[in-house]
Write a structure and sequence with these properties.
Number of helices: 6
Number of strands: 7
Number of domains: 1
CATH superfamily: Peptidyl-tRNA hydrolase
Mean pLDDT: 86
Structural class: alpha/beta
Radius of gyration: 15 Å
CATH class: Alpha Beta
CATH topology: Rossmann fold
Strand content: 15-25%
Shape: globular
Length: 194
């Protein structure tokens, strides 16, 4: 069994912010899997789905970002999932909007949600798919909690689709093949002006 975790912040006020890209990608995976039923468990929303011929738990922690690891740890323990069978989907300030980067393991790169997961699972050998949001002109906190510009909104659906494709590649072919296929730069950076 595999676990795909989308990171975000709960609540309607955060729903369309940059920090919630992980939720958006997991939502797209659920849609592709026939919209399985979501339930609340482990301080998270989760759905049991079959994707790329594999049983997958889709998980959206409902704690704030810096506590995401608690829900992930509980799900991993309950379903007896190994760390290398976990994929975390998250936003990344340090790569341009639209870029995708998958890695098999590594540090948190300053992302509090990923840092919490690494701490709670006791190791960094967790696959991660980072979706670029760009640094923006202001403070990091303001950038991750901001909404997308009009140009970015128009460019967002293919980015989310490409990220969901990467998750499916990870399930079907493994991390190395998915990395070779999915790590990409954006075609053209849209304007970040509202």
């Amino acid at each position: 069994m595999k676990l795909i975790v989308g990171l975000g912040n709960p609540g309607r006020e955060y729903a369309k912010t940059r920090h919630n890209l992980g939720f958006m990608v997991v939502g797209e995976l659920a849609r592709r899997a026939g919209s399985p039923s979501w339930r609340t468990r482990f301080k998270a929303e989760l759905a049991d789905a079959t994707i790329a011929g594999q049983r997958v738990i889709l998980l959206e922690p409902q704690t704030y970002m810096n506590l995401s690891g608690h829900a992930v740890r509980e799900a991993v323990n309950w379903y007896k999932i190994r760390r290398h069978d976990v994929l975390v989907v998250l936003d990344d300030l340090d790569i341009p909007f639209g870029a995708l980067r998958m890695r098999e393991s590594g540090g948190a790169g300053g992302h509090n949600g990923l840092k919490s997961i690494v701490e709670q699972l006791g190791g960094a050998d967790v696959a991660r798919l980072r979706l670029g949001i760009g640094r923006g002109p202001g403070a990091a906190t303001a950038q991750v909690l901001s909404r997308f510009s009009a140009d970015e909104e128009r460019a967002l659906p293919p980015v989310i689709a490409a990220a969901a494709d990467c998750c499916e590649a990870w399930l079907a072919e493994g991390a190395i093949a998915a990395m070779n296929r999915c790590n990409r730069k954006p075609e053209a950076a849209p304007s970040t002006a509202p």
